[in-house]
Amino acid sequence: MLREHGGWNSLTVDPETGARLFDAFFHVERAPATVAEVCAALRQRLVMIAAEQRDD
Length: 56
Fold this sequence. Notes:
Elements: H1 15-26, H2 35-55
């Protein structure tokens, strides 16, 4: 069926749509951010990952 409809190339989307799908899937919002804000967000994610690893 995929071959009948143009193969993998037919599944591509424009960059704007791709960005919206990515953001929706990962529950993120794009906005200007300072380096400190980015570092704080990454730190928070690392703390969450470490907590999940301890639960194993």
